[in-house]
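Hi all, posting the design record for the shared folder.

TITLE: backbone redesign
STEP: 1 of 1
STRUCTURE INPUT:
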């Protein structure tokens, strides 16, 4: 179990307004462009380093880390703590909770969230595999079986390889 503190979006917003804290959004640039908490700095999880965070938050007394739902931000906090950083706090519920709480956001034109892209991709692979298994050759049924096993693994471990691959796609940059 991690000892990284977590706060609600309203607590984070209050601290950001009253102290010299910074807010780091670790989602992909495409997700960030679509909608993000006002004042957030985008440092995508897959390329973020402790040095990047220190440069971007120079002088901040506390660094709050946010993503879409809170999972990637906790991973980012753990990565940064392992690199020797302190004064990190995970924002529970992520950007989704921030928007639902009607806190200030910057709206733009972005891409579909990584989580939705995974559901679309997995569903499409299962559908195509089932069709090919029925009409072309039964060995194609391995494809939906493989996707189902991958989704089960992701659900148990909270690690989604398809999400990591999709995050690197050009439309998410």
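Okay, here is what came back for every position:
SEQUENCE:
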């Amino acid at each position: 179990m991690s000892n990284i503190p977590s706060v609600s979006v309203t607590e984070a917003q209050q601290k950001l307004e009253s102290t010299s804290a910074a807010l780091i959004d670790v989602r992909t640039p495409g997700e960030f462009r679509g909608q993000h908490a006002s004042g957030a700095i985008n440092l995508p999880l897959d390329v973020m380093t402790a040095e990047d965070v220190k440069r971007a938050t120079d002088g901040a007394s506390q660094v709050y880390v946010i993503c879409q739902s809170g999972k990637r931000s906790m991973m980012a906090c753990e990565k940064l703590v392992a690199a020797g950083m302190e004064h990190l706090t995970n924002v529970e519920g992520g950007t989704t909770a921030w928007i639902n709480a009607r806190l200030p956001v910057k709206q733009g034109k972005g891409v579909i969230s990584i989580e939705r892209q995974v559901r679309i991709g997995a569903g499409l692979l299962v559908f195509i595999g089932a069709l090919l298994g029925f009409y072309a050759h039964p060995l194609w049924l391995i494809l939906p079986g493989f996707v189902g096993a991958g989704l089960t693994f992701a659900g148990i471990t909270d690690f989604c390889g398809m999400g990591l691959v999709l995050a690197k796609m050009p439309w998410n940059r």
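COMMENT: The radius of gyration is 18 Å.
Let me know if anyone wants the other runs.
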